[in-house]
Amino acid sequence: MLAPVTVAATILSRQAVIALSALAIAVISVLALWHKPLPWRAEPLVFPPELVLGIWDRPGARDIVIGGYIWSVAQGARRLRDAMAATQLALAREQRVSAVGALAAAAAHELGSPLGTIAVVAKELVRELPEGSPYAEDAALLLSQSERCRKILAELAHHSEEDGGSPYTQLPISALIERRRCPTVIKGCG
């Protein structure tokens, strides 16, 4: 009677384990109250009621205690598995964000040299073109826009350097604890 309850406790829900334990206790009760005599005895052996109660009590208590304990251990393992899956999902997301940051830093670095050349040429044009020239305004615009691009690339590089550390720096510990308390976050719990 213990084997089905034990196996069920590792796989099934609490209600199913309780139902199976109740069924096992009912079967043990039926066997305790209505049993057949031993076939190798000529006269039936009559057990005292205390012994019958003890024979009935032990397997029933064992099914309840061991089934409950195994179910709680299995539930803990399920929670741990769900928390691990949620943590792996968060880590994969952070790795993707980190990869995008690294790509942005590489792009900022690679674009820095041509942008520097454009800025130098634009400065030369602004300095050498006369004030009334129709191209002076365009050269000034080109210089201001190249400076704007340089600032944007510097910000990208700065942010990617800040975010380039451990992916755990962006995930607060409270989020990890919440994932542990509510492991079904993958299914939309929180």
Helix content: over 70%
Outline type = rod-shaped
In angstroms, what is the radius of gyration? 37 Å
Class per helix and strand makeup: mainly alpha
**Strand portion:** under 5%
Structure description:
There is one protein chain. The chain is mostly helical. It is built from 5 helices and no strands. The model is unreliable at 183-190 (pLDDT under 50). The two termini are 40 Å apart. It has helices at 2-11, 14-33, 49-128, 136-163, 173-181. Helix content is 77%, strand content 0%. α2 runs antiparallel to α3 (49-128), α3 (49-128) packs antiparallel against α4 and α3 packs antiparallel against α5.
Write the SSE topology.
Layout: H1 2-11, H2 14-33, H3 49-128, H4 136-163, H5 173-181
